[in-house]
Amino acid sequence: MAEQQRSLRVAIPIFDHLTALDAVGPYEVLNAVPGVSVVFVSDKPGLILAGEAQDSHLGLRATASYKDVPHPDVIVVPGGPPTKIPLQHKPLLDWIRKAHETTLFTTSVCTGALILGSAGLLTGLECTTHWSSYKKLEEFGAKASAKRYIQQGKIITAAGVSSGIDMALYLAALLKDKVIAEGVQLLVEYDPQPPFDCGSRAKASPEVLALPFIRPLLD
């Protein structure tokens, strides 16, 4: 009888003020891949509140601490508001650096790339993040790109928020194969047909770029 293939473990670190879809999009995709399990990790198990507001009604629960999952096969680092993500949080950064030594893939979504950069993993690499954080990304020695997702060796970075779904499907094909990834895409019915074609800065009209919640991000 053939030896049963071991399950691959994906660890998603979560923290206060994270952007929920950065974590939940990849979770839904990767958790549907046969032979893959996904765990949310943090400083300690417990509820983590998402978003910028202090009274957020949306949260995710970490079921393990960093020390509980020292050697995940894959890391997916979500992002959040650049001024609130844990760029100097030593337990998280130390865990990423150590776990990265043995991962198959170390990945990020949106401003999660800044966390990888702060951990010292992106120097000299072509990477992407949310369009408003290209300059910040380059402060960590990376070469910012507007691509939807980019693989550089075993590091994969995805652009803003929703791009985490695309990256996770690409990752699913790397972990298994194209047919499995396509099956997961069908399972979650990921068939984007947005009512507007304004999902990137390059496609945005002057009126959109002038909106009060967009304009400050352009500086």
Automatic annotation (TrEMBL):
Q: Which domain of life is it from?
A: Eukaryota
Biological process, per Gene Ontology: regulation of DNA-templated transcription
**Pfam families per record:** DJ-1_PfpI
Q: Ranges for the DJ-1/PfpI domain?
A: 9-171
Which PANTHER family does this UniProt record tie to the protein? Answer: ARAC-FAMILY TRANSCRIPTIONAL REGULATOR, DJ-1_PFPI DOMAIN-CONTAINING PROTEIN
Q: What protein am I looking at? A: DJ-1/PfpI domain-containing protein
